[in-house]
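FAQ: What does a multi-protein file look like?

Like this. Sequence, then tokens, then the next protein.
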Amino acid sequence: MYKLSAFADEIGSDVGEQIKVLKDNGVSSIELRSAEGTGVLKLTREQIKEIKKQADDNGIGFSAVGSPLGKYPLDGDFQAHLDDLERALEYASLLEAPYIRMFSFFIPEDKSPEECRTQVVDWLGRMVEKAENTEIVLAHENEKHIYGDTGERCKDLYQSIRSPSFTGIFDFANYVQCGEDPYNDCWQLVKNDITYFHIKDARSADGTVVPAGRGDGKIEEILGEAFESGFDNFLTLEPHLSVAESNYGKTTPDLFATAVNALNDVLKRVH
């Protein structure tokens, strides 16, 4: 069986409100990206423990730490980045979250991805080595303007860094927004390296994010194949259906319900 999770900070900054809306919509886990308007890696250890307690009291688990790791310049201080990784690993352990979401570094405007490949693979490899000392898995999300933004470059990473502590997340909308065909250009290349999905759809004409199944992300087709192959992990909602005042709030409780209902409609057809 698949498991529903969500970037609950899109509902609002208050953890209590996040948990209530998740329960109302049948979502059982959180990919913790922020709380009270503060990014997860800037929260204190005590805040993480309190969030965990609130979630436990309501039967809500954690699928991942939704960290910004890897959304980082290649000319930055890598040791400082490794310090952030250590904090993310600690927080994932405290939350009993199996994954840390991460990325593969911003490509400088004056360089091509190919020119940066060696450094990207080296830095990611050193991060994975840190994770190998724990039970936590680093899960790479395809994202615009980082090295792993296309199906081919994501496949390159998954082939170059072979470790049980490194895996892939498939984000449908991000591939669409990079001009990729999510099924032909991406899924066909990386499907054996994907552990879970971020549920976010988009229209290829203008990149607008829309509810699952209403864009060009090929969500129904791809999830259908995944289920046929035995997929039984997290489907993590990242709706992005409106822009709120908070940096992290990009949905509302009502629009979150719209996102859940759209995904459930897709699931009824394919599962």
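And here is the next protein:
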Amino acid sequence: MIRCDVLGVPFDAVTPEEAVRKGLALMETGGRVVTPNPEILWLCHTDPAVMDAVAGADLILADGVGVTRAARKLGRPLPCRVTGADWLSRMLGVCAENGKKVFFLGGKPGVAETAARNCPGVTVCGVHDGYFKEDGPVLEAVREAKPDVLIVCLGAPKQELWMYRNREALSGILMAGLGGSLDVLAGHVKRAPVWIQKIGFEWLYRALRQPSRVKRLFVIPKFLRAVAKQKKREKKNG
């Protein structure tokens, strides 16, 4: 599988269909899925611990349009963006068809339960909110449920660091860090209309609907400068 480096993070050059097939294959061995956007890439660029947690994942999907544009600018275009929400929607369908079990971890109390009820046909073998202080009880609950897939929605970079820290304790399970996807499944957060998603402005739609996210946009200029420096450095080195 071809990987494309953006600020040191090796993204998988896959279509949505290929990403699902890779996810299905990883259910047999276990592994980690991450879906970095420009904000997470900037965290990777500035924090070695986050870089280790993200760059070492088994499937790295370009969640934001900023990532695909950066890859194109660097001369290594990705087929398209594959958002965490889209990947999860497709994966849940695959799980339902193949009798695979899913565990939902994250969100405020009650969110994971509501998300589970909104997934008819999917075997949700366990749920747990994201408001916990110790990993132990959560790990015990997951191991007891024996899921094929663990959906981790703790927000970035907490979810990536959590999966990395517990990769050995949960070996054999496919873990996917998917941000606010459980809130979407639960109906608490609405995604942008499809036409807005297609033109690449879902990030702006979310910021306008959730003002608390606006401050995250200040990372974008820093991200773009870092990408420009990477391109200049690679051009210099031939």
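Q: Is there any per-entry metadata?
A: Some entries carry free-text notes. For the entry above: The CA atoms of residues 153 and 180 lie 6 Å apart.
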